[in-house]
């Protein structure tokens, strides 16, 4: 289908036009996370005609995702597909003119700069602040604009960030919130309309940036609650100057350097823990499957291996980089013990 017909309504929109659409078509975006926010963002960016989209996610599709994660269906669960792969397959059917690069990986200090290489914009589809602070460090280091977004319950926040020009995430928040200090999807749940509205606000900011309309992006934090029907905007135009930010003003890169971060992560709302080896290395899933046959039910595809332990209490999903998601516990000690027993020390 000719591109002028595909994007005709978008080109007619005064804020984008033919020149803006050409810029969007040339744009290169890193999307961190393909869950609730990420899948909605990816869908909109691909339909808008972004030229290149790198999709990075560490997780696989589960039944509880389908309530709000718009790119997935029950067949993806049956095939035990990682989210990045399932998303890429759907998106390729929507717009074959977009170059997609799906990566099944955990974003950490060892790969963040490589993931951000060659992109014009980073968009946040994550569900945890540790990774967002890592994105913030990398964006500051490489001077790449990024769009922060978060959603829980019926509300969310969006803030576009231009390194060296506007307030960064660390200016706004200061540090990763401590345990119990913020709502999570475990405690407050999350509804699909809130996800879609927050993602839409992120995509609007992204399209302005990609279309060359940086002048239309305000230095504001948008706070929306779809249940209450409210939208507030906080001016953060002078926050960078007032905050004496360790990242902006002092150049600290605590998360990018690996000084901050963790090799274990309790996954929100999942009763699951991710365990990563200290050093990433290639793991033969086929060899591991052979060793685990007596431990329980083993299934495998090109992207992951799944072990359901006898008794059904725990399930281990292991990826080729040695990372594993242990379902059935939110106790880090238990998860590490199961990892050491079945995958290795």
Query: Based on helices, strands and strand pairing, what is the structural class?
Result: alpha/beta
Strand order of the largest sheet: 3-2-1-4-5-6-7-8
Task: Provide the domain count.
Answer: 2
User: What's the story with the biggest beta sheet?
Assistant: 8 strands, mixed
What is the element string, with H for helices and E for strands? Answer: HHHEHEHHEHEHEEHHHEEHEEHEEEEH
- Described by its quaternary structure, the protein is single chain
Query: First CA to last CA: what distance?
Result: 52 Å
Number of helices: 14
The level-1 CATH class of the largest domain: Alpha Beta
In the CATH hierarchy, what is the superfamily of the largest domain? Answer: NAD(P)-binding Rossmann-like Domain
Mean pLDDT: 93
Notable characteristics:
alpha/beta; single chain; 345 residues; TATA-Binding Protein; eight-stranded mixed β-sheet; Rossmann fold
